[in-house]
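cron nightly-structures :: item 1 of 1
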Amino acid sequence: MTPWEYFANDPVGGADFLEITRRGTGELMLCAPDAIVMREPSGGVVLFHAKNAPAARAALEKLPRTGLYAVHGEKNMRLAADALGIKSADGVEKCRQARYMKEAAPVPPPGVEMRVLDETYIEAVAQHYGGVDDPSYVRRRVKAGVVVGAFVGGALAGFIGTHAEGSMGMLEIFPEYRRRGLGCALEAGLIRRLLERGEIPFCQVIEGNEASMRLQEKLGMTFSDEPVYWMVER
């Protein structure tokens, strides 16, 4: 069985598995009719989903211990927390996964210049992006050519990028440029870019981030039924 077959009826919930498979960057540890485990070495994350508790328990016994996990579904999260010894809520972050499923790409609003950032912008991105504790992560993402900046009057006003496992994120608008629609412009432009490159545009919104939820709805993203839980062994 392949990840495409496993998620044939859930292309939104399986978007992260499917994009990693499309890239060929993942290591498929298990893909049975009722459970799937995949490791994405560059990001150091293990992705896990199971369709029932017995399959989840069996898969968890063979789960690679990397310290970082993306677990799909609340029941699977609870079983994984027990198996991994993650007792604190501080080690679990709940997200909603969303994927752009329309054939036509969104059209970015006019008047915003967008271009891929080169290494001269590493410090600017690192200064404004607080989504990770590892400064070298930002450096690697910019060097990979996956961070897109929005420019107003020739000045960098914000940016967006894709994470190591393929999800859209890193969206930051500098304070003096907010409330101008730049976030919508950046994500619309990134979705268009990903579609043109044959990639799967998807993102994961942290629970409670209502502004991001509204942005995804505005852009026509489709949300998964099951949440995704990012789990960290501390």
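cron nightly-structures :: done
Residues 38 and 73 are 16 Å apart (CA to CA).
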